[in-house]
Automatic annotation (TrEMBL):
Leader sequence residues: none
Pfam (any one): ROK
Keyword annotations: Kinase, Transferase
Statement: the UniProt record of this protein carries the keyword Transferase: yes
Protein name (database record): Glucokinase
Alphabetical list of InterPro entries matching this protein: ATPase_NBD, ROK, ROK_cs
Family indicated by similarity: Belongs to the ROK (NagC/XylR) family.
Single GO MF descriptor: kinase activity
Organism of provenance: Microbispora bryophytorum
Keyword Kinase in annotation: yes
Length: 342
């Protein structure tokens, strides 16, 4: 690589409410050690959102005292679904509800405004890439990993030899829509969980906030008729409160989260048989939970990740590092990789 001060790349993590930005120098050193957020305004449409990304870039450059002339490339990540080239799905997405987003070339529009190369990944892939490089460091190019990021949906990423596996249409690593075995996961009489994508019994239908709201919590409330969450008028609000109950050892909440951990473990078991990675990373809201609950959940995931003895000797199941910064940092790493040609 070049000298640290000779040039930089910027990572931009676009979200439903905020953009997070970081700067990575030519030696691979991040110049920002915290969140640097600005409003994303994506619900106001593409033109406004692109301008907000320019604002995020200028803001982080000013914060780090970095001249814009030294920026060699920009890494961009957004929520999906989107193509490998950063074209938002023609059906839109949870964060991209304005019709102007449908089929919008987000990467191309930002590149045109900046006059710089823009390297695109979806947010799950960007977080997966960062986790991989943190874990393996200089040896990242010799290893593989699979990441599951639990949020409103279930994102993910597959990294092979240090690179994101994108697939022909850019849809590789959509782990949330992999079907998982449900026998032994669901209780007798528990309805088949349905995903917003229309699938029955995929991983996201269980292991996501939407899965809790739509499938798990309504069922478990019937099994705990006296639970105080019955008094919460909206099930969506009750779902968001559930992690706090889990941290306090609430039996209903632990049943819900145990099913989520089982689902992720079964997803990782499937991954073990098609990619046999060196590491399995878990990210999402549970990573930011109280330490005792986080460790309980991770141990449940490990318990239900069925690896062969040979795999257990070489692989690890662990947490995503620096989750709130992982997207922007992964986007920056992807841009740096593009420049240095790894």
């Amino acid at each position: 690589m070049a000298d640290a001060g000779s040039w930089v790349v910027v990572g931009l993590d676009n979200g439903g409410t905020s953009n997070n930005a970081t700067v990575l120098d030519a030696s691979g050193r991040f110049l920002v050690d915290r969140l640097v957020e600005t409003p994303s305004l994506v619900r106001e449409g593409p033109e406004v959102a692109v301008e907000q990304l320019l604002l995020a870039l200028d803001n982080v450059l000013e914060l780090t005292g970095t001249p814009r002339s030294t920026v060699r490339a920009v890494g961009l990540d957004t929520p999906g679904p989107a193509s490998a080239d950063g074209v938002i799905s023609s059906k839109g997405a949870t964060n991209f509800v304005d019709p102007g987003w449908f089929g919008f070339d987000f990467r191309g529009a930002l590149e045109s405004r900046l006059g710089l190369p823009v390297v695109y990944n979806n947010d799950g892939n960007a977080a997966a890439l960062y986790s991989h490089h943190v874990r393996f460091g200089p040896d990242a190019w010799q290893h593989s990993s699979v990441s599951a990021i639990v949020g409103t949906g279930l994102g993910g990423g597959v990294i092979q030899s240090g690179h994101v596996v994108k697939g022909a249409a850019g849809m590789a690593g959509e782990l949330g829509h992999v079907h998982i075995p449900l026998q032994g996961l669901l209780e007798d009489g528990q309805p088949l969980p349905e995903c917003n994508c229309g699938f029955l019994g995929d991983a996201e239908s269980v292991a996501s906030l939407t899965g809790i709201e739509k499938n798990l919590l309504p069922y478990w409330l019937t099994r705990f008729p006296g639970h105080e969450l019955h008094g919460v008028e909206q099930v969506g609000k009750a779902a968001k409160l559930l992690r706090g109950y889990g941290e306090n050892g609430d039996p209903l909440a632990l049943k819900v989260f145990e099913q989520q951990a089982m689902a992720i473990g079964r997803l990782f078991t499937i991954a073990a048989n098609f990619s046999d990675p060196d590491a399995y990373f878990l990210g999402g809201g549970v990573v930011e939970a109280a330490p005792h609950f986080r460790e309980w959940f991770l141990e449940k995931v490990r318990e239900h990740t069925l690896l062969r003895e040979e795999q257990r000797r070489v692989a690890t199941v662990t947490l995503v590092e620096d989750l709130d910064m992982a997207g922007a940092r992964g986007a920056a790493l992807a841009a740096l990789t593009e420049i240095v040609g790894r």
